[in-house]
Amino acid sequence: MAREAEVARLYDGRMWVHYGQAYVYGQEHPGELLARSFAGQANGICGAAKPGSLCLITGLHTGDVHIRVDVLDSEPELVDDWEEAVEVSFRPGIGGAWLIDWNGNTVVDLGLDDRDYRVRYCARGMQVGSDLDTLVEGEPVDSYAIYFWPAPPAPDQIIRQTSPTAAYWHTAWK
């Protein structure tokens, strides 16, 4: 029987997105993040091709999405209610890393060590968010989770893909 991973929940709440984007990066803005984040990757919703940064794609174009961020000591199980899931490798660098909304506001300091991590980015309701496009009030319609755990670098991969929106993004950067 596999043991359950220890979880440190860093954030569980709303995050503002615009152009369906949010980011993880360190002390300096990486610049041109979107254009270079997905180069050479299989997945198109969590760009990790630019060292020290992640570009996160959401279904909703503009408004609040729900997001949860967890740091674990080992790989988590993939829960069935996540409709989309991808994995990438990430190393934050000496300065650390922060989850940043589209406006450049810090959502949460990730407090990650300067080491290699595997990141699983999961989505639920991505298609609903895409179909809605803009949410100016009310509860978020799409939810996301970012899981970080120590692991050596490995190629990115699509773990689960169910929506036309995710399928589009997985081919959009090629």
Please trace the helix and strand order, writing H or E for each element: EEHEEEEEEEHEEEH
Derived structural class: mainly beta
Q: Given this structure, which CATH class is correct?
A: Mainly Beta
Tell me, rounded to a whole number, the average pLDDT. 92
Helicity range of the residues? 10-25%
Tell me the CATH architecture: Sandwich
The third-level CATH topology is Substrate Binding Domain Of DNAk, Chain A, domain 1
- Largest sheet, strands/sense/barrel: 7 strands, mixed
Uncertain spans, ≥5 residues at pLDDT below 50? none
Structure description:
This protein has one domain: Substrate Binding Domain Of DNAk, Chain A, domain 1, CATH 2.60.34.30. Strands 1, 5, 6, 9, 10, 11 and 12 form a seven-stranded mixed sheet that branches. It has helices spanning 33-37, 126-132, 164-172, and strands spanning 7-17, 21-25, 46-47, 54-57, 62-72, 84-90, 98-100, 106-109, 117-124, 134-135, 143-150, 157-160. Helix content is 12%, strand content 40%. The mean pLDDT is 92. The radius of gyration is 15 Å and the shape is globular. The chain starts with 6 loop residues before the first strand and ends with a helix. With 174 residues, the protein is mainly beta. The chain has three helices and twelve strands.
